[in-house]
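Example 3.2
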Amino acid sequence: MREAASEHRCFGHDEEVAHWMQTLSAPSSGAPSHCAQNGLFAYPAQSNLNGRRLPSFWPGCLRSSCQSSKCNVYSLLDAAALLSTSPLDLSDPSQAPDYTVFSFYKIFGFPDLGALVIRKGSALPFASRKYFGGGTVESVTCTNESWHMRKQNSLHEQLEDGTLPIHSIVALGTAFDVHEKLFGSLERISSHTSFLTNRLYEGLSSLRHANGLPVCTIYKDSRSSYQDASTQGPVIAFNIRNSNEEWVSNAEVEKLAAIRNIQFRTGGLCNPGGIASFLRLEPQDVKRNFFAGHRCGNENDIHEGKPTGAIRLSLGAMSNMQDITAVVSFVEEFFVDSQFQPKPSVSLGAKADFYIEMVSIYPIKSCGNWPIPPGLPWDIRPEGLAWDREWCLIHQGTRAALSQKILPQMALLRPKIDFEGGVLRVRFDGILPPSIPNEVAIPLSLDLASFQDPTPQYSNTCCPSRVCGDPVSAYTYTSPDIAAFFTAALSTPCTLARYPP
């Protein structure tokens, strides 16, 4: 719509909107005239970034301003996000938007229908549409002359181009009935979600690291309050910082949340303007991030120490206090630093910009890391750090190496190298069946003679496998206990394999 307009303007805050409407009602001699052509003022009833609910009185103010100066500027309200958890009052045509769009899908889930509600006094612009479709004309010529006669009986007949989705329209009545039986009125849903969101906001805001710094940076508008449903919807947008005030990757948060059956929306949230504003990203920052390889949705979501997106939590009619407790407990479990470890101060001459805080390896590909103990000598081999990605998990059917991208719960597999015991210990920080222990031990030695169990722990020959699509060879462990442990942890038939030296 913006690209099709002859001119456009993006408002940064409410005061700009108020000032613009004042200029419409009393334009100065040097101000551009908006009376010669139609204009459209479009805004969302609820922000899809942080849930802020914008003023509902703007359409009425705009209409009053245009009536005094005889301007042709109409209002368009996007009520899709608002109507999923809140009612919308259109009973007063003098204050109602000229055009209101919303989605039945976002209210009910099914049917997949949207709607355009047109104020009767604002139908004139549709009379000059430059195109038409079947069902909106009474007659049309096809040869020698371009002519058609539009339907004139009702406005909806003039706008319903093509074949209507009859089945979805019929299902809409059932959707209304079922929704009301399950959840009651939208006023009740609004009260319910407002209460829950306030509790979630208080819970996340209260989380502190051991040094007292907040865990969550919440992107809330100064004009909204989580205790006032007229200014704030059931949405919270935030990012997470560690105790050293460093940003935590949204991709990491999303993967860990999936393990706990919590679904976050992360990234740009389809709101580039809001993201740039809250994260203080200048246009040159956005361009620099793009040319550095950032794309919305990829895992490389922190550039030059700044996040490129945010985490969004949205509540609905079916949300409950158990959900709120689960989210707060999740953030507390994985991201609250209970012991503060300040950055070490290391002198590197004139400039001390870089230091090594910790070195970790990943003994099993795509599983958890293991920090190398400070002061412990460590080999650096031609292929990299010793014991790093020495093992992998492979699917028992396809022989392909498993990845955390497909199985996020692999992050809960925590390996630890026990040199004194001569084993790799792997603990699963999730829920396992009672018959499966939460830890398994794998010998570090490749020497078959070192095993006391006469049953071979792994096959004597390398078996073909695939890592990132490339063919590789690896020794596959044949121990049923090892296979049962990893299969139960990931709910996927798999076993452990080791790359040959």
